[in-house]
Amino acid sequence: MTATRPEGLLACIEDDLTKVEERLVAETRSDIGEVRAISGHTLLSGGKRLRPAIALLAARCVGRSFDTHRAYAAAAAVELIHMATLMHDDVVDEAPERRGRPTANAVYGNSITILTGDFLLAKSIWLLSRDEENLNLVRLFADVTIAMAEGEVLQAAVARNWNLNLTTYEQVIERKTARFLAGCTEAGAYLGGGTEAETAAMRAFGHHLGIAFQIADDLLDFLGDPKQTGKPLGTDLKDGRVTLPLIHTLAHCDPATRAELLTTLERGQALTDSEIAALTAVIARLGGFEVARQEAEQRMERALAELNRFPESAYRDALIRLAGYVVARDR
Amino acid sequence: MTATRPEGLLACIEDDLTKVEERLVAETRSDIGEVRAISGHTLLSGGKRLRPAIALLAARCVGRSFDTHRAYAAAAAVELIHMATLMHDDVVDEAPERRGRPTANAVYGNSITILTGDFLLAKSIWLLSRDEENLNLVRLFADVTIAMAEGEVLQAAVARNWNLNLTTYEQVIERKTARFLAGCTEAGAYLGGGTEAETAAMRAFGHHLGIAFQIADDLLDFLGDPKQTGKPLGTDLKDGRVTLPLIHTLAHCDPATRAELLTTLERGQALTDSEIAALTAVIARLGGFEVARQEAEQRMERALAELNRFPESAYRDALIRLAGYVVARDR
């Protein structure tokens, strides 16, 4: 298995993605065997290549220009940043598996996984910096990386805060997820020769899509099929990560239910499957999932509205269908 | 305590360093309280600001130009990279203290220390990328960061390899230490308006100084005063890190001594202070420290020779004295 792409949706950029894949293999080379091994492990562990695909589709959708060399380098760079942050996140979360396969930290240990994450992050900057025109892309993805680190730290800092409000939840998901997708679509628009207004619209598309993406991801922790997602249900609950369905439920239940829920939630890593199922049932009953689904759908509509300014094309269609896939996906 | 600078040596750039310090405080701001706290902890924990000082002295020594805004930004960026790599290294080494003070990981835990390291690394790139002329500096420090990660991984991979040869040892210290100092002096020369030959000479100065610096650092692990260095003797031995004095000793002792040394070395973390003292005595007797000292001094001479092409100045004097300090330092 190499990359698992959302089937069918990306046919119009299949050739582009093949070139990006070649670039990724080339850019993760190192004369240090262990760096090569860990990079290769992460590269070949079934990523969907969603971010490169979104950047390339955004560029093709704008369609005023397309320098293949620059576009493929930028698309590879965003996947390298994604790989680096996944590696660091998996160390932080002590995750044994991702997408049903052992994580780099599980196979190679935390130390060299942290360092190879740094290697990949620096490689992405190096790759972007080779083109004289790319200084603004360097700045954009430095900003994205800053925001992602801040979002992850904020998420860790507010873990087990059962009174988390919507504003802070949105701040977390905006930084840890939406900022990156907005960066991919903004970079794509820039590489596609977009005007200022087109670039802003593409950025807004990525931003709203990113919020919808993370809400959908948070829903999968309660409602996903572990065989599909590759991770057990209730991981967020065990880690004390408070997401939209739970925020809604805790804000709208009677005091007795709230007290009961908090007692269960406090069990953290000790939560059993049946306790997680019971929590899920209460959230379902009180409409927490429905609220989250509606929010994700509204965000997706706001995202799609931004695409109206672009001419009809196979690329725009693919972005629309990809947005639908992101919100309805089961893994 | 803020920065502890090698006293007296840096008087000629005292004002520059004050500006860089202000810049560092400004650039480590974040609206996420925990990011600010950890960055602040590392910023105020007694770093010598050696790398910014070397970059600034190199620029002033070349002396054809000096744009304060760009120079201070670049000097702050190299310290941010240094801070980020120290934080990740301390997590990797599970270090409880650095310079006699608790590390960020000891106070705040591994997870948010890793993430704040990423934040600082990205901040350094962001800071460099704000100036239109700086793309080559971005590329240079991306390359430095790649090399440092590779060097650290290689070091971890060859730990407890008692047959380590000089070539691999040099590869480790070139990447983990010398490449960064060479980057600082090259960046300095570039910011000072250096010609190609001047920039190459400054880079070579930094490279040789970096090798000497690391050999001196490796000697401190055997011969330093823990009260001065802030870390216990024999940390490298416990971690299985094979450095020049040990390589020389193992290559030049009789088979019986070698067998005895290896038995002791295999004890790793279990090594007692008296075993470390006994190992140190054998290395001293077989000239391991003398060989390392000579190598460091030769490297320093090669470094200083590169400075001959620059006109006499307070800045060149400071670089020469700083090189002496680096090799003779006791902490």
From TrEMBL, chains A, B:
Any GO MF annotation of the entry: metal ion binding
Biological process according to GO: isoprenoid biosynthetic process
CDD domains, A to Z: Trans_IPPS_HT
Keywords for the protein's UniProt record, in alphabetical order: Magnesium, Metal-binding, Transferase
Enzyme Commission no: 2.5.1.90
Top-level taxon in the UniProt lineage: Bacteria
Cofactor: Mg(2+)
Catalytic class of the enzyme: transferase
InterPro entries: Isoprenoid_synthase_dom_sf (IPR008949), Polyprenyl_synt (IPR000092), Polyprenyl_synt_CS (IPR033749)
Similarity field: Belongs to the FPP/GGPP synthase family.
Protein name: Octaprenyl-diphosphate synthase
